[in-house]
Specification:
single chain, alpha/beta, 3-stranded parallel sheet, two-stranded antiparallel sheet, 5 helices, globular, Extracellular solute-binding protein, signal
Protein backbone atom coordinates (compact mmCIF):
# COMPACT_ATOMS: atom_id res chain seq x y z
CA UNK A 1 0.00 0.00 0.00
CA UNK A 2 2.79 2.43 0.92
CA UNK A 3 4.54 1.78 -2.41
CA UNK A 4 1.32 2.53 -4.33
CA UNK A 5 0.78 5.70 -2.33
CA UNK A 6 4.35 6.84 -3.01
CA UNK A 7 3.92 6.17 -6.74
CA UNK A 8 0.63 8.07 -6.77
CA UNK A 9 2.17 11.05 -4.98
CA UNK A 10 5.19 11.13 -7.32
CA UNK A 11 2.87 10.93 -10.34
CA UNK A 12 0.71 13.75 -8.92
CA UNK A 13 3.74 15.96 -8.26
CA UNK A 14 5.06 15.28 -11.77
CA UNK A 15 1.69 16.15 -13.26
CA UNK A 16 1.59 19.36 -11.25
CA UNK A 17 5.15 20.18 -12.26
CA UNK A 18 4.38 19.79 -15.91
CA UNK A 19 1.28 21.95 -15.61
CA UNK A 20 3.28 24.56 -13.73
CA UNK A 21 5.84 24.75 -16.53
CA UNK A 22 3.38 26.91 -18.43
CA UNK A 23 1.75 24.36 -20.69
CA UNK A 24 -1.44 26.42 -20.75
CA UNK A 25 0.42 29.53 -21.86
CA UNK A 26 2.05 27.66 -24.73
CA UNK A 27 -1.14 27.10 -26.67
CA UNK A 28 -1.16 28.70 -30.11
CA UNK A 29 -4.58 29.23 -31.60
CA UNK A 30 -4.91 28.91 -35.36
CA UNK A 31 -7.46 31.64 -36.14
CA UNK A 32 -8.34 30.21 -39.55
CA UNK A 33 -9.26 26.74 -38.29
CA UNK A 34 -10.09 27.50 -34.65
CA UNK A 35 -7.79 24.74 -33.42
CA UNK A 36 -5.23 25.04 -30.65
CA UNK A 37 -1.88 23.28 -30.59
CA UNK A 38 0.39 22.84 -27.59
CA UNK A 39 4.18 22.83 -27.71
CA UNK A 40 5.91 21.55 -24.60
CA UNK A 41 9.28 22.95 -23.61
CA UNK A 42 12.20 20.56 -23.70
CA UNK A 43 13.48 19.58 -20.27
CA UNK A 44 17.24 19.30 -19.93
CA UNK A 45 18.80 17.28 -17.08
CA UNK A 46 22.03 19.27 -17.54
CA UNK A 47 20.13 22.54 -17.01
CA UNK A 48 17.21 21.60 -14.73
CA UNK A 49 14.03 23.62 -14.45
CA UNK A 50 13.40 24.83 -10.89
CA UNK A 51 9.85 24.58 -9.59
CA UNK A 52 8.80 26.31 -6.36
CA UNK A 53 6.31 24.30 -4.34
CA UNK A 54 4.52 26.24 -1.59
CA UNK A 55 3.40 23.73 1.00
CA UNK A 56 1.68 24.05 4.35
CA UNK A 57 2.98 20.55 5.12
CA UNK A 58 6.54 21.87 5.25
CA UNK A 59 5.54 24.22 8.08
CA UNK A 60 4.17 21.60 10.47
CA UNK A 61 6.53 19.31 12.41
CA UNK A 62 4.21 16.30 12.06
CA UNK A 63 4.18 16.56 8.24
CA UNK A 64 7.51 18.24 7.41
CA UNK A 65 9.72 15.14 7.34
CA UNK A 66 7.31 13.25 5.10
CA UNK A 67 6.94 16.11 2.61
CA UNK A 68 10.70 16.72 2.52
CA UNK A 69 11.21 13.02 1.82
CA UNK A 70 8.72 13.12 -1.06
CA UNK A 71 10.39 16.20 -2.54
CA UNK A 72 13.89 14.72 -2.13
CA UNK A 73 12.81 11.35 -3.57
CA UNK A 74 11.34 13.11 -6.59
CA UNK A 75 14.41 15.32 -7.07
CA UNK A 76 16.78 12.33 -6.83
CA UNK A 77 14.81 10.11 -9.23
CA UNK A 78 12.31 11.41 -11.80
CA UNK A 79 13.37 15.03 -11.37
CA UNK A 80 17.03 14.21 -11.94
CA UNK A 81 16.20 12.05 -14.96
CA UNK A 82 13.86 14.60 -16.56
CA UNK A 83 15.62 17.82 -15.51
CA UNK A 84 13.25 19.19 -12.86
CA UNK A 85 14.19 20.35 -9.35
CA UNK A 86 11.46 20.99 -6.79
CA UNK A 87 12.23 23.61 -4.16
CA UNK A 88 9.89 23.46 -1.18
CA UNK A 89 8.69 26.67 0.48
CA UNK A 90 6.94 26.47 3.86
CA UNK A 91 3.62 28.34 3.77
CA UNK A 92 1.73 27.59 7.01
CA UNK A 93 -1.12 30.07 6.57
CA UNK A 94 -1.39 30.35 2.76
CA UNK A 95 0.00 33.89 2.78
CA UNK A 96 3.60 33.42 1.57
CA UNK A 97 2.63 32.49 -1.97
CA UNK A 98 0.35 35.53 -2.20
CA UNK A 99 3.10 37.84 -0.92
CA UNK A 100 5.53 36.35 -3.44
CA UNK A 101 3.08 36.85 -6.31
CA UNK A 102 2.66 40.50 -5.29
CA UNK A 103 6.46 40.81 -5.08
CA UNK A 104 6.76 39.52 -8.66
CA UNK A 105 8.34 36.18 -7.77
CA UNK A 106 7.57 33.01 -9.71
CA UNK A 107 5.05 30.85 -7.85
CA UNK A 108 4.72 27.52 -9.58
CA UNK A 109 2.71 25.16 -7.36
CA UNK A 110 0.68 25.77 -4.21
CA UNK A 111 -0.50 22.95 -1.97
CA UNK A 112 -4.03 23.88 -1.03
CA UNK A 113 -6.78 22.29 1.02
CA UNK A 114 -9.92 21.29 -0.87
CA UNK A 115 -12.30 23.80 0.79
CA UNK A 116 -10.03 26.66 -0.35
CA UNK A 117 -9.59 25.66 -3.99
CA UNK A 118 -12.45 27.68 -5.47
CA UNK A 119 -11.77 30.70 -3.25
CA UNK A 120 -8.13 30.66 -4.36
CA UNK A 121 -9.13 30.40 -8.01
CA UNK A 122 -11.41 33.42 -7.69
CA UNK A 123 -9.01 35.53 -5.61
CA UNK A 124 -6.17 34.92 -8.07
CA UNK A 125 -8.26 35.99 -11.04
CA UNK A 126 -9.00 32.63 -12.68
CA UNK A 127 -12.61 33.24 -13.57
CA UNK A 128 -13.03 30.81 -16.43
CA UNK A 129 -15.05 27.72 -15.70
CA UNK A 130 -12.94 24.78 -14.69
Amino acid sequence: MAKHLKTLIIFTVLLLLLSACGIGSLQNADASEGEATTTLPELDPENPTKITFYSYSLAYPTMKDGMEKLINDFNETVGKEKGVVVEGVADPNFQQYRADIVAGKDVDIVQNVFPMLDASRLSLGWFSSV
